[in-house]
Amino acid sequence: MASDQTKKPDEGAEPGSPRPDYGPVALPPSKREPSEALHVEEWEVEKRPALYLAEFESARDVLHAAEKVRDEGFEHWDVHTPFPVHGMDKAMGLGQSHLGWICFFMGLIGCVGGYVMMYWMNGVDYPIIIGGKPPESIPSMIPIMFECTILLTGFGAVFGMLGLNKLPRHHHPVFYSRRFERCSDDAFFITIEAADPKFELEETKKLLKSLQPKHIELVEEEVP
Amino acid sequence: MSHDPIAEIGETHLLPPDTTFHHVTESVSRVTENKAPRGWWILFLLSLALAGCLLASLTYLVTAGVGAWGNNNPVMWAWDITNFVWWIGIGHAGTLISAILFLFRQKWRTSINRFAEAMTIFAVMCAGLFPGIHTGRPWFDYYMFPIPNQMALWPNFKSPLMWDVFAVSTYFTISLLFWYVGLIPDLATLRDRSKTAKRRAIYGAFALGWRGSNRHWRNYERAYLILAAISTPLVLSVHSVVSFDFATSVLPGWHTTIFPPYFVAGAVFSGFALVMTLLLIARTVFQMQDIVTMKHLELMNKFMLATGSLVGYAYAMEFFIAWYSGNPYEWHVFRSNRLAITVGEGGVSMAGSYWWAYWAMIFCNVLVPQTFWFKKLRTSIPWMFAASILINIGMWFERFVIIATSLHRDFLPSSWGYFSPTIIDITLYIGTIGLFGTLFLLFIRWLPMIAIAEVKGVLPHADPHHGTPGDHAPLDAYVAAESPAE
Question: Which residue in B79, B86, B174 sits closest to B127, CA to CA?
Answer without folding.
Answer: B86
